[in-house]
């Protein structure tokens, strides 16, 4: 499932929703669409336990509706939680400002020094390729937490890197960009990384950490 694109996942959920028979609301016009909005797209090749969407219903929400949808999803997809939301006008993507990731590494090297050095820099410039150009972008403002979680004294070559990165309109950074900027892996080795999205958050001015299920 990690190799399905964001658009593939949107289509998958739209088909599952129709199959479930949920009383969803549709847009008007010649080509009506289900009124559904998703959070920030998950990069191709990543796994996740924190993908969210808003779905507009024609009738009040009932817990059994989430069960019905979960029953028709393909293997590898799960509805973990659902709740009603009243009078929400802002999109999910516009409200979220932090993404939490874990990266599994097969290594016997301690990368704490490289991550600390990266955080100490005032500017972290990377090259980001778009359809039309290659741009140099400073991703330092979007890097909040980097933590090497090593081997805990065990005779193991498995380790994790924990990241909290910006997402949304205020600027963003990708885990693969951090790994490359820190000099942990060469660009050609980045596709082999096991990157997992742990959470999506809105962190307000007082530092309160809220998931989409809490705001």
Model description:
- The chain is 21% helix and 26% strand.
- It is an alpha+beta fold.
- It folds into 2 domains: 88 residues, no CATH class; 115 residues, 2-Layer Sandwich (Alpha-Beta Plaits), CATH 3.30.70.
- The strands form 3 sheets. Strands 2, 4, 7, 8, 9 and 10 form a 6-stranded mixed sheet that branches. Strands 1-3 form a two-stranded antiparallel ribbon.
- A hairpin with a 4-residue loop joins β5 and β6.
- The longest helix has 15 residues.
- The radius of gyration is 19 Å and the shape is elongated.
Report on the biggest sheet. 6 strands, mixed
Radius of gyration: 19 Å
Determine the CATH topology of the largest domain.
Answer: Alpha-Beta Plaits
> Which of globular, elongated, flat, extended, rod-shaped describes the shape?
elongated
Strand content is 25-35%
Distance between the termini: 28 Å
What is the number of helices? 5
Residues in helices, as a percent range? 10-25%
